[in-house]
Amino acid sequence: MIEWKNLDTLDAYKKLSGLKDEVELKSVMAGANGAKRVAEYSVPMSNGMAYNFAAKQVDDQVLDVLSELAEEAQLSDKFKALYNGEVINTGEKRLVLHQLTRGQLGDDVTADGVNKREFYVRQQERIAAFADKVHAGEIVNEAGEKFTSVVQIGIGGSDLGPRAMYLALENWAKVNNTFKMEAHFISNVDPDDAAAVLSGVDVAHSIFILVSKSGTTLETLTNESFVKDALKKQGLDASKHMIAVTSETSPLAKSSDYLDAFFMDDYIGGRYSSTSSVGGAVLSLAFGPDIFARFLQGAAAEDQLAKNTDIKKNPAMMDALIGVYERNVLGFGTTAVLPYSQGLSRFPAHLQQMDMESNGKSVNRFGEKVDYVTGPVIFGEPGTNGQHSFYQLLHQGTDIIPLQFVGFKKSQMATDVVIENSTSQQKLCANVVAQIMAFACGKDDENANKYFAGNRPSSIIVGDQLTPETLGALLAHFENKVMFQGFLWNVNSFDQEGVQLGKVLAKKVLAKDMEDALLAYANLLDI
Amino acid sequence: MIEWKNLDTLDAYKKLSGLKDEVELKSVMAGANGAKRVAEYSVPMSNGMAYNFAAKQVDDQVLDVLSELAEEAQLSDKFKALYNGEVINTGEKRLVLHQLTRGQLGDDVTADGVNKREFYVRQQERIAAFADKVHAGEIVNEAGEKFTSVVQIGIGGSDLGPRAMYLALENWAKVNNTFKMEAHFISNVDPDDAAAVLSGVDVAHSIFILVSKSGTTLETLTNESFVKDALKKQGLDASKHMIAVTSETSPLAKSSDYLDAFFMDDYIGGRYSSTSSVGGAVLSLAFGPDIFARFLQGAAAEDQLAKNTDIKKNPAMMDALIGVYERNVLGFGTTAVLPYSQGLSRFPAHLQQMDMESNGKSVNRFGEKVDYVTGPVIFGEPGTNGQHSFYQLLHQGTDIIPLQFVGFKKSQMATDVVIENSTSQQKLCANVVAQIMAFACGKDDENANKYFAGNRPSSIIVGDQLTPETLGALLAHFENKVMFQGFLWNVNSFDQEGVQLGKVLAKKVLAKDMEDALLAYANLLDI
To answer: By C-alpha distance, which of A211, A345, A355, A343 is closest to A271?
Structure first.
């Protein structure tokens, strides 16, 4: 029997709250004990990866209580309920099925009269067949020529995730000869976004993907018109250049305006849609369906680990629990995500949405205000770039910011140079390792300006190389981490009521239905 | 006589600390009073812009104390000392002269035996002459052909600022027929960064700019070798394809490895170098020297306003004071920068460095630990994209995040569509206006899930259009804001000792001079 309880009502949480300042990283990470922690404080992930939390402010005592907390909060049972098809998104009264787009974790799930796993697989197969035909020159533009680029039109989850995944695999695909066509993305309602993208692509040889679950997202429909205008200006029939990714019930689903339509449904939140048709169409067109399938396999393997009830075998659950300890007990309000991999340049922006939109809530699942803090601010840039930017504050600022590093042994493109006896890849890896220790142990110095207090916690996810599989695993890890944290905070991680008010007011402004301050602001901007 | 005192020793600050929860935005922004605030709580900026702080939690009483604080902290005197050439960067014993790259605010400043304003102007003239020759086909590649792209090799301040400025003007330049050549940037030591950029440019027709003040930055020298390898592989002479931007005393300054070298000096911090030769070379090559000159004029005009002693006439000082009030009295730890302009897509990343690297310090100018918080975390993405991402947390999360909006009346490219009776640009502007009011006033709802508490403070900088001038003004505004905040916190905003420890440890790793945890981590990554 699952009970949805607030975090601060749990005995284990009360116990955890008493465990503050237990672990001085400076001491525990020094000497042989530090090496021992690196060896032991590691949870295996799928696809040869590992989540290492040696440099987090935890010890065996804290871990024991985190384990009790996981049990008392029924994290595994709640996950099980989710993947077996319970209505976990209570606000919108919806199932939460993104894991089902990449594998079957439990029972068959039936909704809307169909087996949902079969539905998602069928969409993947339809997309694969479509992409294969585009690549084979069987689906062509009006002039009978092959399409050479794909342009996704979408915003939020229809943009950030697919874009981050595309950038993560673009160069890998090029060197592995699976690169089929360039992808571009139009998202912002700012007309300069669409105008710039369109001026940089060969419109006549582009296939456009319109992504909107409801078929009513203002930005996306506006940008669709923008694109249609551009096609018309070149004398082209937009319906021969455009496909839709939408829900079966949306006005876009059966429209003759599109070459074809591929479906998602209400059980896939936008920010969790990279493994659904939303990511599937653009990634299959860009890299081929096989690569997209490998990406799904990587995610599915990682999902399996999230079923483990032992936190030492469940990397996402461990990560989630440590995060809640840092947020609610140690009091840290922000987390930095720092991938040492240029391919992951927009991965932090995607996590920013996934995490902040899911758990940036003040009410619990029952709509009652909670008395503790929930989701933190997430930000990040790739290392080593960040080292020459905001790391100053991370090292010597007055606030402590927990850090989430990601690193890979091998580069993606395998082009490298040896300077001062090391390759660039070795320098990259040396830097991430050095940073972890610098943050943990700091450095004494008589000159306070050169003094590093240390005790700044970090974890690292290590992998062999950023590939479709490891990318899928990385994505699933963070999705599941955010899910477990939502369970702990007892919030509904799958709705986003906080985005509504702005939309309503924007409509008022456009309808000139405004007064007082709103009108005064509108006048400032000549609306 | 200037006295450098800690913030918490100032009488005005003590008074300010008593002014908490004075202003309920929900009430003061409602009705006619809200419109009055929008009209009155505005500081004119240069180039037709304005800094509007109506939706900040201040009232006349708070503003009076902020004004006292500005006076007691001697903000204007300190700025004067800075631009007249005092050693403001006490840690490194250096003058701080970035404002001098764009205008003369006070006395002549002589250092290293030369008039520094003349030195900076001479570099600009040399760059302009060089760029003109490149554009005219007088400086050409080995085959006698015109260069068609420029690639900047630099990291941190040699990358983020120039890149953000380039992106901000790229599309504007294209529609205004001042676009000369594409710019690309290589920064990360990750070999995939250089490899990807080089695979996407026409190397034989590219001119590379190596940017390193000291001529010793590891990432940059490594990437230089990377580029030289690529040139050699095409049978090209690297010295015919590369210029340097460096200090006159660096090993790069007189090297025959470069077509030419342009200079900066120790008085320009990397994160303040966009208006120096560091930004000058790439922006003049990309857009022409006239556009770079207009960018400098915009910044110079804004610098003039920073001299005003009246905070109501000094937008940067007002912004700085309100920020310190929010950080130290109201207790907000993070600030989001949200430009409603796709051209400013990387402007938040630049501000992140500028702000966090400048003021992320725990010791004052004398190397004594301070007992108050200093620089906040800065993050942001362009609107409306962010609305479909992390705004959920901003609206309904448990922490309050102050917001800094930027908006322009006109788009840059002037290509637009009318959908539902409004252009995309009108929708964009309607959205930013709506967001300000939604954050300030919130919305009552019986369903707590749809309830918005409001009282979430924001400011907006409004301009006519993002042009070279307004971009320069925007940049100068934030540089000067960060400077004034550094004065208030009594920190040295112009050094960055916090980045050193990581460098030292990375060298140890590469030299295999490591043990214990460092070695264990290195083994994880196969170094």
So the answer is: A355
